[in-house]
Amino acid sequence: MDRQSWPGGAGTVDPAHGACRSGRREEGHTSFRFAVVADDFTGGLFVASQLERRGIPVVYVSDADVLPDIGDQEVVVVATRLRFLSSTEAVARLDALTTALDAVGTRRIFYKYCSTFDSTDAGNIGPCADFLMRRYGMERLVFSPGYPDFRTYVHEGYMFYKDRLISESIKRFDPITPMNDPDMVRVLQRQTRETVGLLPHRVLHGGVDAARGFVREQQDRGVRYFLMDCVDNDDVACGAAIFRHDRVTTGADALAVELAMQWRQEERAFVSHTRAQAVRGAGGAAVLVGSCSQISIVQHDHFARANPVLDLDIREADEVRLAGQALAWAGRHLEEGRAVGLSVAGDPAQVAQAQALFGVMGAARKAEAILATVAKGLAERGVRKFVVSGGETSGAVVEALGIQRMQVLPFDELGAGSCISLDERRISLFLKPGKIGAADVFSAALAKMRTP
Predict the structure, then answer these.
(1) If you average pLDDT over residues 168-179, what whole number do you get?
(2) Pairing relation of β-strands 158-161 and 164-165?
(3) What is the mean pLDDT of residues 138-145?
(4) Beta bridge partners of 73
């Protein structure tokens, strides 16, 4: 593996392609060696838990206002809710966030999106990338969707999800970002005016030097965005070696983790790691289901076999009344010492009717708002353990709970998503995307929170 080091001090920009030379940090110069900007909450947790699993300490931030207060860190993951925003709004929020990161001294930024590149022609990945290119004077930018360890691959630019073209997988039925085109170069090109090229598997397997030469030749021909194949972890390692000195990189978890590992080996300057511990056994427990995926429905039904579960119909107009009824219902069961489940995930017909009434995003936002209100009310009633299904729902719940910082626990048999709020309440959470997890994951997550 290539271990080239740029000469010069931390934060110096290589004029050839806007690359950040990664010499050792000068004391007091940089607060964060590496900031991951995640476009949703569960995606941020996934990469954070993978880094923690490898012994790399992560501070997980859900409110950028606390950035100046957290001191020198090796990795900071900033969770946002950018994924489903309009391009204009997403870029405006990214502008504010990068301004905050620059103000505290951030050496490198990784823009993290879903491994399946969830985005439509109106999506904001391209516009956000365009903004980052302009802001940091970049002359190239890598894009690396895919995650081989979790059976998401990109070969010759085509994405495969669990061994099927993504356009033939369950992702084509996603209610907000249906993935109908498997060609990731084509998908990205429709979102940007920059020239998008492919960095293919066959080139990556030719070695770092050859692949670096290929990238240079493509840049000379006007290519600025490089969509990288991700067939296996060797592709990821080679790509990381090529782009690891760039000020900004983008991709899914696999590239973010590999970059962090390579930087660690190169710089050998680590932050000490003190992990927070959960307060076990205190407070009530609740499961909140915002995802309407088939996998979430199976998990909902499994949990309901042994626990009280209330299904809320978001087609009703009065959100306040719905939340009030839910809290009254939950309160009775919590007084009995039982974990409760509350869901806004209706069957396909109900979802379609809600979308017809409120629009696709309107229905989603209404569902999130109801569960966020319920979560806040449950916390006020002493609930300190939350399992939340759905990436956007997780973001809404964390915001409603007023959580600004969290300690993320390492990836384990449950997967990603276990975290603890770093405030006096010490709320334990398991936040998961809707489309992953075993049937019994809700009960298993609560059991983990109760274990001494």
Answers:
(1) 86
(2) antiparallel
(3) 98
(4) 32
Q: What is the DSSP string of 7-63?
A: SS-TTEEETTTTEEE--PPPTTT-SEEEEEEESSHHHHHHHHHHHHHTT--EEEES-
> Which residue(s) pair with 153 in the sheet?
160
Which amino acid, residue 75?
V
**Residue 69 clears pLDDT 80, i.e. is over it:** yes
Q: What are phi and psi of 352, to 5 degrees?
A: -60, -40
Q: How many CB atoms lie within 10 A of CB 392?
A: 23
CA distance 276 to 79: 19
- Domains present along the chain, CATH in parentheses: 12-267 (3.40.50.10840), 284-450 (3.40.980.20)
What is the sign, positive or negative, of the torsion defined by CA atoms of 150, 151, 153, 158? negative
Cα dihedral: 103, 107, 113, 114 (round 10)? -130
**Dist CA 47 CA 446 (whole Å):** 22
**Mean pLDDT (the chain, rounded):** 88
Report the pLDDT value the prediction gives residue 354, as an integer from 0 to 100. Answer: 83
Supply 200's token pair: 């293919």
As beta bridge partners, residue 36 has: 77, 110
CA-to-CA distance for 301 and 340, rounded, in angstroms? 13
Band the pLDDT of 136: cuts 50, 70, 90. very high
Look at the chain and count its residues.
Answer: 452
Q: Which two tokens stand for residue 195?
A: 């020239």
| pTM for the full predicted model | 0.85
Q: Which of 211, 228, 230, 98 is nearest to 151 (CA)?
A: 230
Percent of the chain whose pLDDT exceeds 90: 71
Strands 428-432 and 383-389: parallel
For residue 277, what pLDDT is reported?
54
